[in-house]
From TrEMBL:
This is MFS family permease. It is found in: Membrane. It comes from Brevundimonas variabilis. Its main location: membrane. InterPro entries: MFS (IPR011701), MFS_dom (IPR020846), MFS_spinster-like (IPR044770), MFS_trans_sf (IPR036259). The chain crosses the membrane at residues 21-38, 61-80, 92-111, 117-139, 151-173, 193-212, 246-267, 287-307, 319-340, 346-371, 383-405, 417-438. Keywords: Membrane, Transmembrane, Transmembrane helix, Transport.
């Protein structure tokens, strides 16, 4: 093996990607990403009906959203990343979307808690294939100076999906309250909460067919053998290539992990702050926070990508990490204000949430792009899977947990949730800023080596 890297693509083709079709690719993959977040968030809206029908405890419900989904989603992402680096990425996405959509729909017909647990496991396994494959495809479809905007457009799926799930939540609560059962073709009479899984799951089967219209892009920046042919790397060789770039990879991974702690904590607990502090109803909270997340998060994601691209064009090779670090510092300051607004003004609290989610969204898309610019093609999927493994493992475990721990064992007050959340979000985003800033120098060196 040699470290010689093809600058344009593995075949030596110097032609730039056609960005018109590339944006179509981004559009389709963004729909997939949006759908994945709706499918993973929908469970949190159905806690009451699930507990009632299966006589489940809070711990069992937590396992459905935690162990059943998150553990398998996180673990499967690692082998999925290796498949992405070796096989057709479009086909991997098709299989993943089809499988997780089928498993989401299967939740509607689960006859007991074990069946629902297995179906949620399936959702996690299917969704684990999407991000490594989609990010790799987008990276090979755009030049570097447009990659931040492309990745950020894909990344808004996080906020579109989460926002739509919150908006849908109010409707679900109202429907279950007013119409306990529905009669559907094929399925017959079915509980309304079960029908929700069908509504969000079955369209994914059509989306999987839509993904088949995408073309597999040529792979760029591949490691070449001495005779100019792209080589296949063993696992040990892959680890060696990533190991040479461990500082920028670790910087991005840790930064995104602390961002994920803030994101998952925000998504779970921000509605509860409004309900506990200002006695808001579930419908009112879902409507307001749905729009805050959907609009604020999407605009923040797009802004981060655009600023990253402008910085790269102006010669700042570490532009993505600069944007991520500065927006994280600003986010820490904004979320610190939550400690003062909670319990005093609903409008001010919503304002903090809106500004905070805007800043919280800025680093993700640009950092996805940044990770791809310093890694050869043969390891990009696996490196991103490793980054997401670290980010999701830390984010999914600590994000929802820390505000609850602070509230239960430090402040010991239901009304102090805003204070607990403010501390969690401000500290985690500050740690994210430190992590992003730490890797900037090494990142510039590796970016220059791979993109002369």
């Amino acid at each position: 093996m040699t470290d010689q890297v093809a600058a344009p693509d593995a075949s030596g083709n110097l032609a730039k990607p056609k960005t018109g079709y590339a944006w179509y690719t981004v559009g389709v993959l963004t729909v997939c990403y949006t759908l994945s977040f709706i499918d993973r968030q929908i469970l949190s809206l159905l806690v009451g009906p699930i507990k009632a029908e299966f006589n489940a405890t809070d711990t069992q419900v937590g396992l459905l959203g935690g162990l059943a989904f998150s553990l398998f989603y996180t673990l499967v992402s690692l082998p999925a990343g290796r498949l992405v680096d070796r096989f057709n990425r479009r086909n991997i996405i098709v299989a993943g979307v089809f499988f997780w959509s089928l498993m989401t729909a299967a939740c509607a017909v689960a006859r007991g808690y074990p069946g629902l647990f297995l179906a949620r496991m399936g959702v996690g396994v299917g969704e684990a294939t999407l991000a490594p494959a989609a990010v790799s495809m987008i990276s090979d479809s755009f030049p570097n100076e447009k990659l931040g905007s492309a990745m950020s457009t894909y990344g808004i799926g996080i906020y579109l999906g989460s926002g739509l799930a919150l908006l849908l939540g109010g409707l679900v609560v109202e429907l279950v309250t007013q119409t306990p059962t529905l009669t559907l073709p094929i399925f017959g009479e079915i509980a309304s909460w079960r029908a929700t899984f069908l509504v969000v799951g079955l369209p994914g089967l059509l989306v999987a067919l839509w993904v088949m219209t995408l073309k597999e892009p040529a792979r760029k920046r591949a490691i070449l053998s001495s005779d100019g042919v792209a080589v296949r790397l063993s696992i040990s060789e892959t680890l060696a290539v990533i190991g040479k770039r461990w500082i920028p990879v670790a910087s991005i991974a840790l930064g995104l992990m602390f961002q994920a702690v803030a994101l998952y904590g925000f998504m779970l607990w921000s509605p509860a702050v409004l309900q506990r502090s200002f006695d808001w109803s579930s419908q009112q909270t879902g409507l307001v926070m749905g729009f805050v997340v959907l609009i604020g998060g999407s605009l923040g994601m797009l802004s981060g990508g655009r600023l990253s691209d402008r910085g790269l064009v102006s010669g700042r090779r570490d532009a993505a990490l600069r944007v991520a670090a500065f927006s994280s510092v600003a986010g820490a300051l904004v979320f610190a204000a939550l400690m003062h607004t909670q319990g005093t003004s609903a409008l001010a609290t919503v304002g903090v949430f809106a500004c905070g989610v805007f800043l919280l969204a800025m680093p993700a898309g640009s950092c996805y792009a940044a990770s791809q610019m310093v890694l050869p093609n043969q390891v990009r999927g696996q490196a991103l899977a490793l980054i997401l493994f670290i980010a999701n493992l830390g984010g999914l475990t600590m994000g929802p947990l820390l505000p609850g721990l602070l509230n239960d064992f430090v402040f010991r007050s239901e009304s102090a949730l805003g204070l607990s959340l403010g501390i969690t979000l401000s500290v985690s985003t500050l740690l994210a800023a430190i992590s992003f800033g730490w890797g900037r120098r090494e990142y510039r060196l590796h970016h220059e080596a791979l993109n002369p």
